[in-house]
Specification:
alpha+beta, 3 domains, six-stranded mixed sheet, five-stranded antiparallel sheet, 16 helices
Length: 486
């Protein structure tokens, strides 16, 4: 809307009215870099600001450039002249080996902006149509799918509020002309001339030729990005339906997924992984999950693991830098979790995916706990595993008189056995957990209760016959494992 109207305060107000829910009665926070684009955004917003409006600005000093302190001082002076409160956030960016400095700085910037955003506040950023054109082309060169081609949405949830990009239909030339007319100054980052960076090379060498041949390319590509975003929404609706059919708690049924055509299966997996909060794997690993992992033997417990590198393909990426994510199969179920670091030193490769690490290795280091449950009804567990509670319950399954005064809480070492059925055989805990569809990722965290050397309970899932209540039981109870949120 409004692309034919000249940029200015009235145009910006109309754009925000259509874009931001509740505008103008919302709190606005402008991400001010000091460049011409964010200068135009802040100045146009300040010129139209009502007294009842809450407008402020935030500038992030990455400390990467010798002139960064001067840029911060410029932003302070600009904000004062526009009578807008400004907060300068200072951070130190450290690039890991092989990481893009530009990507790491972007991650740090959006992490700070997310922390600074108040409840319900709208963060305004100044990306324009030229930025959108660059982003779509870079995504195409990287082989991105629809989410990448959809590029930067005009409005998206962010932190405790929203992220809005009201300038996506305006060009940098328009914004610079408007700023010059008002005698405003801005800072120029000379690293923008460094053609070793992909975006700079594209901006300086490639796009001038494209615009010369196709003057309306930025507008056309912005329209394409909108179409891609709409198509992705439809794919998400389909994926949600498939994921809900395959859901078993937070896990997915392999049998249900295998009934889907391959492209629909991959679509469902992408949606499920993204919804879990993990960053998406690359195409090769996604195909491993959708193919070899599902075709493996049901008892082999295979997994696919990938490192989520800071500075993903989409610009910007407001999520934090993540560690290692893992999709693991146990019997008919797929589970997902973040491991925080790679297990590559303990794992081997098989059929294109990484084989699992034993539960005993993951549980190593967790201390045994002596629990005098009659004196203390609750037992706090280490490593954010929550607590165990034994409470009286006249219909409970536990015979409290059959329990010793002190129980030992341990963790899986392998070979544990118990008898869950009175008069039945003692069975391997591993088999019982498989039958109960307990994800492999949770088994190593399962607190086990021992009476001496005998396993009497696996958390609140399984009870040994020696402590099960009978019709003659005088005092009954119930065991609860209250997990900490992860």
């Amino acid at each position: 809307m409004g692309a034919a109207r000249k940029f200015g305060p009235d145009w910006l107000a109309a754009q925000l009215t259509a874009l931001v829910p509740g505008f103008p009665d919302v709190a606005l926070c402008v991400a001010l870099s000091g460049g011409v684009d964010s200068t135009a955004l802040l100045a146009a917003l300040a010129a139209r600001r009502r007294k009842s409006s809450r407008v402020r600005a935030v500038h992030v000093d990455h400390g990467l450039h010798p002139a960064s302190a001067q840029w911060s001082a410029h932003c302070r002076a600009l904000a004062r002249s526009l009578q807008v409160p400004l907060k300068v956030l200072v951070t130190k960016v450290e690039r890991g080996r092989g990481a893009s400095l530009e990507a790491v700085a972007r991650e740090a910037r959006y992490r700070l902006l997310a922390d600074a955003l108040a409840e319900g506040e709208v963060l305004l950023t100044a990306q324009h149509s030229d930025d959108q054109l660059e982003t779509v082309l870079l995504q195409l060169f990287r082989g991105s799918g629809l989410p990448g081609i959809a590029a930067m949405p005009a409005l998206a949830p962010f932190a405790r509020g929203w992220l809005a990009r009201p300038l996506l239909t305006r060009s940098r030339v328009e914004l610079e002309a408007w700023v010059r007319e008002r005698g405003l100054t801005w800072v120029e980052d000379e690293t923008n001339a460094d053609e070793r960076l992909d975006r700079n090379y594209l901006r300086r060498r490639v796009l001038p030729l494209i615009r010369e041949r196709w003057p309306g390319s930025a507008t056309a590509v912005t329209r394409t990005a909108r179409h891609a975003a709409e198509a992705q929404k439809l794919l998400d609706v389909l994926a949600l339906s498939d994921v809900e059919r395959a859901s078993h708690g937070e896990s997915l049924s392999v049998r249900t997924l295998r009934a889907l055509p391959p492209e629909r299966r991959r679509n469902a997996l992408r949606f499920w992984i993204a919804r879990s909060g993990s960053l998406l794997p690359d195409t090769r690993r996604l195909e491993e999950i959708a193919g070899p992992l599902m075709d493996a033997r049901a008892d082999s417990n295979p997994f696919v693991e990938w490192n989520a590198v800071a500075g993903g393909a989409r610009d910007p990426a407001p999520s934090d830098v993540r560690g290692c994510s893992r999709v693991q199969r146990h019997a008919d179920l797929l589970s997902i979790r973040e491991t925080g670091s790679s297990f590559s030193s303990q794992a081997s490769r098989s059929h294109g995916y990484t084989s699992s690490v034993t539960p005993e290795a993951r549980a190593a280091g967790l201390p045994e706990i002596l629990w005098s449950w009659r004196a203390a009804g609750a037992c706090e567990l280490p490593d954010a595993l929550g607590k165990l509670e034994l409470v009286p319950d006249r219909r409970g399954p536990v015979d409290l008189d059959a329990l010793p005064d002190a129980l030992t809480v341990r963790w899986r070492r392998g070979g544990e056995r118990l008898s869950p059925r009175r008069g039945g055989p003692r069975r391997a805990l591993k088999s019982l957990l498989q039958e109960a569809h307990v994800p492999v990722t949770e088994r190593s965290r399962l607190p086990l209760l021992f009476s001496g050397t005998r396993l009497v309970a696996a958390a609140d899932l399984l009870l040994d016959e020696t402590v099960q209540a009978t019709p003659a039981t005088q005092r009954r109870g119930r065991l609860f494992w209250k997990k900490s949120p992860r």
